[in-house]
Amino acid sequence: MAGEDCVRKRPSASTTTNKSTENEEMQRRPDGERAFQNSSNGRVDVDHVITRKMQLIAEAEQLKPVFMKEVDSHFTEFVNSLVAKSALLDSSSSASLFPASCSEKELHKAKALRAPPEHGKIFTARRSLLDELFEVSHIRTIYHMFIALLIVFILSTLLVDFIDEGRLVLGFDLLVYVFGKFPVVFCTWLCMFCATVIIPYSLFFQWAQGYHSSSHRGIYSLFYGTLFTLFQTVGLGIGPTYVAISYALPPASRFIVILEQVRLVMKAHSFVRENVPRVLSSVKEKSSSVPVPQISQYLYFLFAPTLIYRDNYPRNPTVRWGYVATKFAQVLGSLFYAYYIFVRLCIPQFRNSSQEAFNLRGLVLCIFNSILPGVLILFLVFFAFLHCWLNAFAEMMRFADRMFYKDWWNSTSYANYYRTWNVVVHDWLYYYAYRDFLWFFGKKFKAAAMLSVFTVSAAVHEYVLSICFGFFYPVLFCLFMCFGMLFNFILNDRRKGPIWNVIMWTSLFLGQGVIICLYSQEWYARQYCPAENPVFLDYLKPRSWSCHVQL
């Protein structure tokens, strides 16, 4: 028995070996883990657990930027490779092998092999960027901040009116005025739309049917081309402008007429431009059938939120009417937002500006005081039209390609800003102004092609503002052609750092301040100092330069 007790008390060799191994393992562990192991003999050291958790969180925060940078780098390489493969497939009808990992030289070759001009824009089903970003709670909070700012504007207006009048004033006289004479606007739009449905399609149909059998194809095409040009310049050009001026439509009503005029002109041009080459190609191939689109396809295009004609577009299976109602409600909310911005920030500032003598100090203060309302109006125009309005019509039409804009707010160059701010108009200018210019004059004249696109865009923008405000004051044209062109070459695509994004936003803020300040001063100067017997030059000469003298 005594021997057995001794055997029990004597540690075995294996037990000793295991304990020594555990001790060595403990020595290898970090100090924090050894302390936790020593202090957790039946109890939990809460302070140590919290400390260790904070250490792990700090390490994770340090690793997160590196991880996200790696993921972004690999994702960018993957997307570039995918785009390069797509470009090769579009530009070549024959099948070719393409390696899974593309080198830099292969990517440059793929970019050079883009689809030819006649292929044009490729539509695909995709959501709008803001719809995706609003699913992130942080981005949605910014949207909530703008709603809160609207509530502050409403409360400010109501309280000031209550103090001044002794009662709540809920009138919206400004909105009623700027959208006045709506029956004239609706009748004008209806005439424009019906004419655009009937005349361009009929002219193209008649030309396409008779072109194959015509013995004088050049004269035949010139005749129908002249008729189409007359319709564009007289029917859609002079007609609506005459109505807007002769009926003295208020500013917002003029905007509706003139913007619809420009939209229908661009739509009609796209329809003819995309279908004429198909007819010419069928005649060259001696095809028996004439490729004329159906009237239903053309009608769908006139309502679709795009300016590039296609026979068919990617379509969604159903219409989300709740989504449509939400977008139209947001458009209405944006209108009231703009109303309160003008009532609280613009009208009090500019109402008495014409009574003060012009001086440099007053101009500088006016520009900087106009930056806030100008930037807010810029955001509202983008959100209400490019996001809400176009998405509402796209949903009703089941139009699946919702890329009406890109992430223009991240632009580090004005070249990228012009491409991403309004993709719908940019596509039209790129395919029908820039690329057609290069096709006609040659690829050596890229600078001239870019200058022509800038000139066309600046002239159309200034035309819209001149007709809608009722006076010619080429502030926007000068900003486009002078500073816009200059920044387009200085802030080019090689500028990638964050400082260039700051510079882009600073110049954009200043530009909005200049536009709001100068156009508002001219508007009130023409209200307070009307010309007694105006001649044509009176509409061209800025009244704000001399209105204070008359007072």
Give a brief outline of the structure.
The protein is an all-alpha fold and 551 residues long. It is 73% helix and 0% strand. The chain is built from 22 helices and no strands.
Helices, strands, pairings?
Layout: H1 2-9, H2 13-28, H3 31-39, H4 46-91, H5 104-112, H6 129-133, H7 137-165, H8 173-178, H9 182-211, H10 217-246, H11 251-284, H12 295-303, H13 321-350, H14 360-369, H15 371-396, H16 414-421, H17 423-441, H18 446-469, H19 475-490, H20 498-528, H21 536-540, H22 547-550
Helix pairs in contact: 4-5, 7-13, 9-10, 9-11, 10-11, 11-18, 13-15, 14-20, 15-20, 17-18, 18-19
GO cellular component, one term: endoplasmic reticulum membrane
Pfam families: MBOAT
Region (Disordered): 1-42
